[in-house]
Request: fold
Amino acid sequence: MRDHGEYLFTSESVSEGHPDKVADRISDTVLDAFLTADPYARVACETLVTTNRIVLAGETRGPATVTPEYLAHLARLAVKDIGYDQAGFSWRNASVECHLHAQSEDIAIGVDSSAEKDEGAGDQGIMFGYACRETEALMPAPIYYAHLILRRIAELRKNNDPLVQGLQPDAKSQVTLRYVDGQPVGATSIVVSTQHDEGADQAEIKSNLWTLVESSLPHGWMVPEREFYINPTGKFVIGGPDGDCGLTGRKIIVDTYGGAAPHGGGAFSGKDPTKVDRSAAYVCRYLAKNVVAADLAERCTIQISYAIGVSHPLSVYVDLHNTGQGVEEGKLEKTLRELVNLSPRGIREHLHLNRPIYVPTSAYGHFGRTPDESKGTFTWESPDLVPALKAAFDR
Reply:
């Protein structure tokens, strides 16, 4: 985004009940099941959800104890936890089909380590990471608050809070912020579309969500009433997979930076950490966040590229967007490669990715979340590289 003048920037989020996020949740549930049974299992699971139907497809390599019947059971439990027990999509009676099969030997031979080579990347591609000082989480503000609004609605819904009575799991948000010289100063429009019970009072929904949204934003940021759009079509009863087909990996901008930073195009959910689409995007965020947290820059974008079967990155690129604090980007690129082993194996081991930690990532963004040491989640959000970075640049 620009660092001068005045402009508007918008990001959107979707809830865990959005059809694509239901698919992401199930794919990551499958992944976690395999990693629980074998930390080095290989998984590339895609999920399709539609009216009372769930279809799993893709490739795996792992213990035979993770059966199709067990995965179908876990898929139902995931749908139950999200909150779907509707006529058109219910955890109780949705058909679950499992078409997972063995990983291609051609892919496996490139990824597996041997006496002659280290573990290679599971695919070619480019991955990006980003961090900035717009929020305490070092995330762009529009996507941060879009996620926060929906996460709070979901938490209240699951706790049967009267403020969200009658709301169902499917929801979307959109937050437009006004920037002055590169810094957000307030919201100019907010959109929330949320599935609801038949006959729900739209005025009451709007009033309740006004309270929730206003309390989610910094003081003084709330929009005028005329720019607060709640269910703009006037009705949102049919939703979730019954209203729209959902597929794994279709919300890659929601999952990352809300359009405020580049994206390499690869999706995350359902992929084990040998797939650099996922693991390298995590380490890019980790490096960018630590650069900003170490006060080396106000903004940082990092790109890393890989080739399938090759154990080292082909390139590492750093852009500080003219905000570097006396730091030369070429030196920073070299320093980051020295501090963290950016091979697929090195990333997995540094961030402890061979664990069943992925279900929590499947909704409300993979970045800007709080690490939980007891559960081992969101390790790529840790600022533990800050001391080494400061020492490398005499800070």
Q: What stands out?
A: The CA atoms of residues 326 and 370 lie 29 Å apart. DSSP finds eleven helices and 13 strands in the chain. The two ends are 28 Å apart (CA to CA). The mean pLDDT is 94.
